[in-house]
Design goal:
Elements: E1 5-8, E2 11-14, E3 19-22, E4 25-27, H1 31-43, E5 48-49, H2 50-58, H3 65-79, E6 88-91, E7 95-98
Antiparallel strand pairs: 1-2, 2-3, 3-4, 5-7, 6-7
Helix pairs in contact: 1-3
């Protein structure tokens, strides 16, 4: 792992530049979706609970659950939509995780 860079599968996160790419294609992430992806990558391939995402990103002023759902939708559009293989998996009633290949929850 290069300093300041996280990799999982074909996702690369440049922490110093606050940039993410998949298969070399730059992802257009908002500051919140970047933070969510960073958290998921640090824990990949393990599940990150919804509560953990909310606590790490919003701390003492958590948003409504619809706000998190909206950010996850935005992240999925950037991370999965342009590619054949989805990597962002929802674990029903628990949280989210990154996966490689044909894994299912």
């Amino acid at each position: 792992m290069a300093q300041g860079t996280l990799k999982f599968g074909d996702i690369e996160l440049n922490i110093a530049k606050h940039q993410a790419s998949r298969q070399g294609m730059q992802l257009a992430l908002t500051p919140i979706t970047y933070q969510i992806l960073l958290l998921l990558m640090k824990n990949a391939p393990n599940v990150v609970k919804r509560e953990q995402i909310i606590d790490e990103i919003w701390g003492m002023s958590p948003p409504s659950s619809d706000i998190l759902r909206s950010h996850m939708y935005q992240l999925r559009n950037q991370l999965d939509k342009p590619f054949k293989q989805p990597m962002l998996a929802t674990v029903p009633k628990i949280g989210f995780r990154l996966q490689q290949g044909e894994e299912t929850c």
